[in-house]
Specification:
This protein is mostly helical. The chain has helices spanning 2-37, 42-45, 60-68, 71-102, 108-117, 123-136, 143-147, 154-164, 169-177, 182-193, 195-210, 214-219, 228-233, 243-253, 255-274. α1 (2-37) packs across α14 (243-253), α4 runs antiparallel to α11 and α11 packs antiparallel against α15. The longest helix is centred in the first third of the chain and has 36 residues, at 2-37. It is flat and about 70 Å long.
C-alpha cells in the first residue's frame, strides 16, 4: 500500500514538473529564437527551411542598428518616460488605495466602483478625447504628452486597496495616538508594509509603459522624442522589413525589462500571493 501511495506521489510530481517545464520552454523559446536571429544575416533569417542556430554568427547587426536609427536616444527616452510614469503611478495608486481602504466618507464605494468601471473602457474609445486634452494643454510632441495620461491607474488603485485592507487598523490608530499626521502615517507605516504590492505594480506599469506604441505614435513627431517601439517600427519600411536588425534591436530593448523583473521578482511574487487576503 505504501509503495502505491509513493508511486502516485512520484507520478503526480513528475506530471507537474513536466507540465511546468513544457510551459517554460514554450515561453522562453521565442526569446531564444530572437536572440539567435539577432546574430544571423537577413538571408539566413528568411531562408527556407529556417535554421535554428546561426551558421556564421555575427554581432554586426547591433552596430548597424545604432548606425541606422538613433537607438541610444530612443533607449534613454523610453527609460526616462517609463521610470517617471512608474514612480508617479506607484505613489498615486498607493495613496488612493490607502484612502479608499481606511477612510469612510460619502459615496466612497460608488466612487471606487466608478474608478473600476474605467477598466472596461478600451483605450481606443478615449484616445481622441485624450489627444484633444493634450493638444489644448499645448504639450503635444513633448515628454509631458507621454507622461500626463499615465499619472493615475485604476488597476493600480484596485491592487493597492486590496493589499492595504490587510493592514490592521490598530497600527494606524497607534500612529494617530503618537501624533503622526495622516500623510506621515501613509509614509512611515503604510508604504513600508506594502512594498510587495508596490513591486508588483511597478513591474506591471514599467512593462506597459516600456512597450507602449500606439499613444507615442499619436502624440510624438520629433525624432529626438521617439521611444524604442517607434524606433523599432522605423526599421520596417514600405518595401521591406530588415528582420535581423529588428531582432537585434528587440534583444537590446528587452534588457531593462529583464533587469526590473529580476530586481523586483521577490516582491512581485509575494505581492500577487498576498493581494486580496484579509486578516
Amino acid at each position: 500500500m505504501k509503495e502505491i501511495v509513493k508511486y502516485k506521489r512520484w507520478l503526480k510530481n513528475f506530471l507537474i514538473v513536466a507540465f511546468l517545464s513544457l510551459g517554460a520552454i514554450c515561453t522562453v523559446m521565442p526569446f531564444i529564437w530572437m536572440m539567435l536571429g539577432s546574430m544571423k544575416s537577413l538571408g539566413e533569417i528568411i531562408k527556407i527551411p529556417p535554421t535554428f542556430f546561426p551558421k556564421n554568427p555575427t554581432l554586426n547587426n547591433f552596430r548597424v542598428v545604432f548606425d541606422t536609427i538613433a537607438f541610444g536616444r530612443y533607449y534613454l527616452n523610453s527609460i526616462f518616460v517609463s521610470v517617471v510614469t512608474t514612480v508617479i503611478i506607484v505613489f498615486t495608486s498607493a495613496l488612493a488605495g490607502y484612502v479608499f481602504s481606511k477612510f469612510k466618507f460619502f459615496a466612497v464605494n460608488i466612487m471606487f466602483i466608478l474608478i473600476l468601471s474605467t477598466l472596461m473602457i478600451p483605450f481606443q474609445m478615449i484616445m481622441v478625447p485624450l489627444y484633444l486634452v493634450i493638444r489644448d494643454l499645448r504639450v503635444l510632441d513633448s515628454y509631458w504628452a507621454l507622461i500626463l495620461p499615465g499619472l493615475v491607474s485604476a488597476f493600480g488603485i484596485f491592487l493597492m486597496k486590496q493589499f492595504i485592507e490587510t493592514i490592521p487598523r490598530d497600527l494606524i490608530d497607534a500612529g494617530r495616538i503618537d501624533g503622526c499626521s495622516e500623510f506621515g502615517i501613509f509614509l512611515k507605516i503604510i508604504l513600508p508594509l506594502v512594498v510587495p504590492a508596490l513591486g508588483a505594480l511597478g513591474i506591471f506599469t514599467f512593462m506597459a509603459e516600456w512597450n507602449s506604441y500606439l499613444w507615442p505614435l499619436i502624440v510624438i513627431d520629433a525624432d529626438s522624442l521617439r521611444t524604442i517601439p517607434l524606433g523599432l517600427a522605423a526599421l520596417s519600411t514600405q518595401h521591406a522589413t530588415r528582420h535581423n536588425l529588428v531582432m537585434a534591436g528587440a534583444s537590446l530593448a528587452v534588457i531593462p525589462v529583464i533587469v526590473v523583473v529580476i530586481i523586483f521578482q521577490r516582491h512581485f511574487v509575494k505581492g500577487i500571493t498576498l493581494t486580496g487576503l484579509k486578516t
